[in-house]
Structure formats: structure tokens, C-alpha cells
Amino acid sequence: MTLTETLNPQAPKALAALRIVTALVFLAHGTAKFFAFPHVAMFDGMPVFSLYGLAGVLELAGGLLLLVGLFTRPTAFVLAGFMAVAYFMAHAPKSFFPIINGGDSAIQFCFVFLYLVFAGAGAWSLDAKRGA
């Protein structure tokens, strides 16, 4: 049996692991903004009706939907766009280089979400259970 024949059947599980871990990391941004968990000082006193507040809503709702794998493709599409806008609004003006402008994770989230638009949720998802 070749390596490809061994690994290919496991791809849906690896995709699910990527989706779940990405969702958990992304969700932490929303919980930091709204529940101070984990505590991030720059979010203290954050106005709910602001760009940070909108970002927190997208991070919470989108993170939860991706975590359980429900409506994965449309959610990932919205979040990929959100991350692209966040990168160009908040990070790119500081420097061309992501390592300097702090936009590494925004870029990575954007492209993982874009991949999920095309790949779907993988195994262990509500989308798989409902046949989507």
C-alpha cells in the first residue's frame, strides 16, 4: 500500500482537525473581547458598537459555527472576507511585511477560511450529519 493510499482516507479527519483548531483559536479572540477570557488589556472598556465590537461578534458567532461545523462554507466565506478587510485596514498600513505589521494571523486565518469555503467541514461536523 502506498503512502497516498494510506493517507487519503484520513483527509476528512485532518480537515476536521484543521477546522476545529482554527475555530478554537479564532473564538478566543471573540471571548477576549466580550468576556475578558482570556484577558487582553487593550479590550478593556471596548465599545460594543464599534469595529472591535463587530469583529467580536463575527469571531464569536463564526468561531462557534466553524467549531461545530454548521454552515461551514458560507461562514468561512464571510470570515475570509472579514480577515482580508482586517488585514488591509489594520495591519498593511503599518508596513508591507506581515512579521512587522502584526498581520500574520489575519493572513493565515483568511487563507484557512478560504480553503474551508472550497473543502467544506470534513468529518465530525453537523454539516456532514445533515448531508451538506
UniProtKB/TrEMBL annotation:
Keywords: Cell membrane, Membrane, Transmembrane, Transmembrane helix. The keyword Signal does not apply. It is found in: Cell membrane. GO terms for cellular component: plasma membrane. It is a multi-pass membrane protein. InterPro entries: DoxX (IPR032808), DoxX-like_oxidoreductase (IPR051907). The chain crosses the membrane at residues 16-37, 49-70, 77-100, 106-126. Coiled coil: none annotated. The keyword Transmembrane applies. Belongs to the DoxX family. PANTHER family: BLL4328 PROTEIN (PTHR33452:SF4), OXIDOREDUCTASE CATD-RELATED (PTHR33452). This is DoxX family protein. It comes from Siculibacillus lacustris. The lineage of its organism: Bacteria, Pseudomonadati, Pseudomonadota, Alphaproteobacteria, Hyphomicrobiales.
